């Protein structure tokens, strides 16, 4: 019960942060994907199954609370949550560099998945593909991981189920 | 146990991906009035006041971040503008030079118009007086260009500057009329009273032949043509001061040269009519 509450509180805070804070701290056109960063952090704490559920929930909320095609973010974040959870089982280091690196890669993968899905679905008003922006976004996400990861890790550690946080 | 959990997770991911595909398909096929579109509009209505409030609350932080991020842009902008200012300054300088050159050419044409019988040549000043005792300039034309000793030298507005005293093949030395060794036959424009204009270092003085002649400050002094070196009627300068009669009954007349002798860049040589005789010796007539 405690874990579920933690899950929902984290999800709601992440959604609110994404909708209100992220647009305010953008650099140029690049605003951080806080929901993705939290999906990766959650998956690193809880593993692939929980990571996939968190990613699906976060992505679906993102789709509903924006004007994006419903299901696209849910799809990409589900896969990222799942595979990050899988990767977590192979990492033994407690360094924050790993989550940052995973977030960096995950951001690029997510954006590529989004473009792929939009193309397959045939979305008419698709934004122009700009890899520079994607790398910028990945760097921004990796940077805010430095702030978010220790918080999630500390909160999760209280439940004694976290395996790899300080 | 592990295998069962792993299988459970695989089922879960496949299910979630399948749900996502269904959602994407359903959303893509529904109209603007469909349930997902309506849900999106509703959620936007719910969230927008919150976004507005947070935006307001975060505006000081946003401004601070904006300030920091603007520094880099401002620096590159500053460098670009500096570069642009330099370029424009160069263009302005080039424009000023062009205007000055045009003025010089216009002045020369004016002199030429006034004296159609004269053969004139414009030359560039390439050297200033070497010391305070020699009031001379060096020009970039000599024998090869048709120059001869004692030819009259004019400023761009046609006023007298001096005369050529040394001629080499490609350059010459011009003695300014302020040189203490310079003596030029002159007359007052108002009453044609004759005299000699002599150099006095940084100034020039006139000595009238008729000591009782009427002379006033502001009178224009022009060349008389006497001595045969300088053609007549070339403006020399304006009388600025008339001193008391001296013991030898002569009066000292100070003249302000019309030509700006300290700022000569181009001068005009009177090639023709060529000088007929030697100049008046500085000691003569005094």
TrEMBL record, chain A:
GO CC term (a single one)? plasma membrane
Query: Where would one find the signal peptide in this protein?
Result: none
Which cellular compartments is it found in?
Cell membrane
**Membrane protein topology class:** Multi-pass membrane protein
Which Pfam family, just one, is annotated for this protein? Answer: MreD
Which processes are annotated in GO (biological process)? regulation of cell shape
What is the protein name given in its UniProt record? Rod shape-determining protein MreD
Q: Which organism is it from?
A: Candidatus Solincola sediminis
What lineage is this protein's organism placed in? Bacteria, Bacillati, Actinomycetota, Candidatus Geothermincolia, Candidatus Geothermincolales
């Amino acid at each position: 019960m405690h874990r579920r509450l933690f899950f929902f509180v984290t999800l709601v805070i992440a959604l609110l942060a994404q909708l209100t804070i992220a647009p305010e701290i953008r650099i140029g056109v690049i605003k951080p994907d806080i929901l993705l960063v939290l999906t990766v952090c959650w998956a690193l704490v809880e593993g692939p199954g929980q990571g996939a559920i968190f990613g699906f929930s976060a992505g679906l909320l993102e789709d509903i609370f924006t004007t994006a095609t419903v299901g696209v973010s849910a799809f990409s974040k589900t896969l990222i949550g799942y595979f990050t959870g899988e990767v977590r089982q192979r990492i033994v280091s407690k360094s924050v560099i790993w989550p940052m690196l995973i977030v960096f890669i995950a951001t690029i993968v997510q954006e590529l998945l989004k473009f792929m899905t939009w193309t397959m679905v045939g979305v008419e008003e698709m934004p122009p593909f700009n890899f520079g922006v994607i790398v910028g976004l990945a760097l921004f996400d990796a940077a805010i991981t430095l702030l978010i990861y220790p918080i999630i890790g500390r909160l999760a550690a209280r439940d004694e189920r976290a395996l790899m946080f300080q | 146990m592990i295998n069962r959990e792993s299988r459970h997770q695989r089922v879960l991911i496949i299910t979630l991906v399948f749900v996502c595909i269904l959602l994407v398909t359903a959303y893509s096929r529904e109209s603007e009035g469909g349930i997902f579109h309506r849900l999106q509009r509703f959620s936007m209505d719910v969230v927008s006041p919150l976004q507005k409030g947070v935006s307001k609350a975060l505006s000081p932080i946003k401004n601070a971040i904006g300030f920091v991020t603007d520094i880099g842009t401002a620096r590159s902008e500053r460098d670009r503008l500096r570069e642009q200012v330099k370029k424009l300054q160069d263009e302005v300088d080039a424009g000023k030079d062009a205007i000055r050159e045009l003025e010089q050419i216009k002045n020369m044409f004016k002199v030429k118009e006034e004296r159609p019988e004269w053969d004139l040549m414009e030359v560039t000043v390439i050297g200033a007086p070497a010391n305070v005792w020699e009031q001379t300039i060096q020009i970039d034309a000599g024998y090869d260009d048709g120059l001869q000793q004692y030819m009259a030298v004019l400023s761009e507005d046609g006023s007298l500057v001096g005369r050529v005293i040394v001629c080499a093949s490609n350059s010459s030395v011009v003695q300014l009329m302020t040189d203490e060794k310079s003596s030029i036959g002159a007359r007052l424009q108002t009453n044609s009273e004759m005299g000699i204009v002599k150099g006095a270092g940084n100034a020039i003085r006139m000595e009238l032949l008729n000591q009782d002649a009427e002379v006033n400050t502001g009178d224009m002094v022009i060349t008389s043509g006497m001595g045969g070196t300088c053609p007549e009627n070339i403006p020399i300068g304006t009388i600025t001061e008339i001193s008391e009669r001296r013991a030898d009954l002569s009066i000292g007349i100070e003249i302000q040269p019309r030509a700006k002798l300290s700022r000569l860049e181009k001068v005009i040589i009177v090639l023709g009519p060529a000088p007929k005789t030697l100049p008046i010796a500085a000691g003569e007539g005094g």
